[in-house]
Predict the structure.
Amino acid sequence: MPIEFTSLDAILNHGFDTVIDVRSPAEFAEDHIPGAINLPALSNEQRAQVGTIYKQISAFDGRKIGAGMVIRNVADHIDGPLMDKDGSWRPLVYCWRGGQRSGVFSTLLSEIGWRSQTVKGGYTAFRRLVKAGLYDDPLAHRFILLDGYTGTAKTEILPRLAARGVQVIDLEGLAAHRGSLLGGMPGGQPSQKAFETRLATALNALDPARPVIIEAESSKIGRIVLPASVWAAMLAGPRIVIKAPMGARAAYLAKAYREVIENPDVVATKLEPLRRLRGHATVDRWIALSQAGALVDLSHALMVDHYDPSYAKSRRIDEREVLAEVTAETLDDAGQDRAADAIAAAVTVF
């Protein structure tokens, strides 16, 4: 019988040796249960072909042709990545709705002698649990926002806080974007669903009785939109503000964003939308600094002309409580460690 998981914690701590997602590679790429491997019962092309036959000819023909494809594909998986599994191996198999693809796949594995099980409701059941935790149920966690001007190393300080026993969530890391105009990361961003899976998984691993440090962000990180419950908790949370001298911030930003700002063509493309807001002369000056390789000067100019005014404007309408202000005279490793010590101490009083 398929296993019904009634909570996100239960499905994330399933106890099986391997979770196998038998959906197509395209379905898997959009989102999947954390830790799952993709052994497709049908390829992207086969899934489209079977769907067309199912709709345009008959459901029977679609199932018949699809079954032959699935059996051949499962045989390839058994001869390939599953060949080294011994008799004690316990796989958990799922497809889109817990229907034919996972059923056939799991049955064939069981016939060999492996103790294979399927997920009742498949991926859609997992997705409902993620959605419930982020959209339907009240968020149980309390957030403290780590705030400060651009270039104050907030993102790099988060893992230092985690090493000191502070609960943290790195939203920019989960969204694969630094949250600014120049914030794109190699490989691009995950899908909205995949981001929500990452976020729900991260929240599930934390103790709701203890506060969580989360970087102050807008409601949108790149093209990823924060779930309403998370955004509401962020709006209600107090702040710890990091301050640092302009020179230290410029040096840090030049290093952190180097792979983006050292390419003048990339800089010109990314800064183009700011011409209407900051003017052609200002943007042209930024591009000239990039072309000259003056990355620290460029970082300084971007903060003075764009990032700092934007931050100041947003904070004029922000009345959240400030728990502490931490000044980092430097933002090298030692400076970040000192800042992390001060922030961790401030969290203990919340």
Remarks:
- Residues 295-316 form the longest helix (22 residues).
- The mean pLDDT is 93.
- The radius of gyration is 25 Å.
- The CA atoms of residues 112 and 225 lie 45 Å apart.
